[in-house]
Design brief:
By secondary structure, the protein is mainly alpha-helical. It has one domain. Helix content is 83%, strand content 0%. It is built from 9 helices and no strands. The longest helix is centred in the last third of the chain and has 31 residues. The radius of gyration is 18 Å and the shape is globular. The chain starts with 11 loop residues before the first helix and ends in a 5-residue tail after the last helix.
Length: 235
């Protein structure tokens, strides 16, 4: 989701004391939190309606393609929309994602959902902090993991329409968890480094939404992988 321009990484001590960078990262995390909150609320209220859940379950492929199109399309609208417009685009994406994930609230117990969320939050927090503070360049790791995402998508589609294997599904979830845990650290570092790209205040505001969307997707995919791997289904 973020501009792939290579930016030299600042010194670790500089990162920790730069008030402008700190404010930028807070803006990123605040937007991400609002997106997650919208997703949770929409998922909860959608799950209360059986017709809505059935509609989503029966049209999952179409909705999934819409979500993928919106995620890819973000880069095309980023320079065309204002900061507020970009925020609304992201929040609309998060709300639609919430509707899609409502089926998980029907399939898995509330305790499983809460446990997966806590585990994801702890893992995400640690890895994001690492990505923010580390002096190690994670670019090569990120390139490898981004390729892994497309392999994961193709593998998921093949399994969903051809093999329909529960064992393969669990393996895909485990691989997904590994990929998005790594991406959390990489994406955080990239957001940090892009702060120094010299795009101006408006550009930084837009980058904060791009960063929020990127980390939101990392968190959501980690959460769903956790839920599929460790969650207990309702009887």
């Amino acid at each position: 989701m973020l501009n792939e321009k290579v930016i030299s990484s600042p010194d670790r001590a500089e990162v920790q004391v730069d008030p402008g960078l700190r404010a930028h990262m807070i803006r990123v995390y605040n937007n991400m939190f609002v997106g997650l909150l919208l997703t949770a609320l929409v998922a909860y209220f959608t799950a209360q309606s059986q017709p809505a859940v059935m509609f989503i379950a029966n049209n999952g492929l179409i909705l999934g393609l819409v979500m993928l199109g919106m995620a890819i399309g973000f880069n095309f609208v980023m320079n065309r929309l204002s900061y507020t417009g970009l925020q609304l685009y992201f929040y609309g994406f998060a709300a639609l994602f919430g509707a899609m994930t409502s089926v998980y609230l029907v399939i898995y117990t509330g305790e499983s959902v809460a446990r997966a969320f806590v585990m994801t939050a702890a893992l995400f927090g640690g890895l994001s902090l690492y990505g923010y503070t580390t002096k190690r360049d994670l670019t090569s790791m990120g390139t490898f993991l981004n390729v892994g995402i497309w392999v994961l998508i193709i593998g998921s589609l093949i399994n969903a329409f051809i093999f329909k294997s529960s064992a393969a599904s669990m393996a895909i979830s485990a691989i997904s968890l590994v990929i998005f845990t790594g991406l959390t650290a990489y994406d955080t570092q990239k957001i940090r480094n892009l702060y120094y790209s010299g795009v101006g205040q408006e550009g930084l505001q837009k980058l904060s939404i791009a960063g929020a969307l990127t980390l939101y997707l990392d968190f959501i995919n980690m959460f769903l992988a956790m839920l599929r791997l460790f969650g207990n289904q309702r009887n």
